């Protein structure tokens, strides 16, 4: 008589017995590897800047002494290379420290999930520039759109609703900014890079910058030229006027200059000369803000002339 086959019953391991399902799932996802730096690509259009500043030098020193304590996060691409989601500064620190690899956690994410993760992880930084917020918000909302959570047209103030809330409202709740503030930051992506740099440097405030973003880029360059010449930036009220004039096709280099020459708190103190006798002595292309320097140089030259004349008379 044939022996009955006994079916083997699989018993869970000790790890499975003393861990939750969430912990087991997490353990499956987390895979830490040392990945060569030359196999890691930056996130496409990464909105956060990586600078070789003092903070970076401190990070480099830490990496030399302690290595990478917190792994970077990457995902594997179809071509076999890796895409960096979190850890762009750590990767740069490794390069500067002379290391050849980066300790990374490899995760499985699609493009939209990766975008959301990249933005959220970088928002943990202490300081975030306006330009970084601008492009990060825009990328995050686009990812939400592709995920099917919400359609949000960035050119309009109100997105399509889902569950009573727009995507921009959902994002505002997650990051602690109002929907109107998020809209303002996203508008900054329409500025030419040089004007956006002035916003990052604190030379142009957010609200005037938003108004300038509605002006065509070729005219924004005229505004930039005027800012360079006059060494001042437009106020919110002046930016509103420029935008309105641009919409009416009336904003010319001459009208920009006239607006910029108006006295305002952020403009350097300047000497004003009245009367044709003085005015005609200045070069025609000399901006008003440079007249003080011109006069100072002329006086220095004239003083040297008087000193030489006095010495000649003493001989």
What radius of gyration results from the CA coordinates? 30 Å
SSE succession = HHEEHEEHEHHEEHHHHHHHHH
End-to-end Cα distance, whole Å, is 141 Å
The total of helices stands at 15
Average pLDDT figure: 79
**What share of residues are in beta strands?**
5-15%
Decide which structural class fits the backbone: alpha/beta
Compute the number of strand runs: 7
General shape: flat
Map the helices and strands.
Blueprint: H1 14-17, H2 21-29, E1 31-36, E2 40-41, H3 54-66, E3 72-76, E4 82-86, H4 88-97, E5 101-107, H5 111-122, H6 130-146, E6 161-162, E7 165-166, H7 167-175, H8 179-187, H9 193-200, H10 206-213, H11 217-230, H12 236-247, H13 253-260, H14 276-279, H15 291-314
Parallel strand pairs: 2-4, 3-5
Antiparallel strand pairs: 1-5, 3-4, 6-7
Helix pairs in contact: 3-4, 5-6, 6-8, 10-12, 11-13
What does this structure look like?
- The protein is an alpha/beta fold.
- Helix content is 51%, strand content 9%.
- The chain has helices spanning 14-17, 21-29, 54-66, 88-97, 111-122, 130-146, 167-175, 179-187, 193-200, 206-213, 217-230, 236-247, 253-260, 276-279, 291-314, and strands at residues 31-36, 40-41, 72-76, 82-86, 101-107, 161-162, 165-166.
- It has a 5-stranded mixed β-sheet with strand order 1-5-3-4-2. The chain has a two-stranded antiparallel ribbon with strand order 6-7.
- β3 (72-76) and β4 form a beta hairpin.
- α3 (54-66) crosses α4 and α5 (111-122) packs antiparallel against α6.
- It starts with 13 loop residues before the first helix and ends with a helix.
- Residues 149-160 have low confidence and may be disordered.
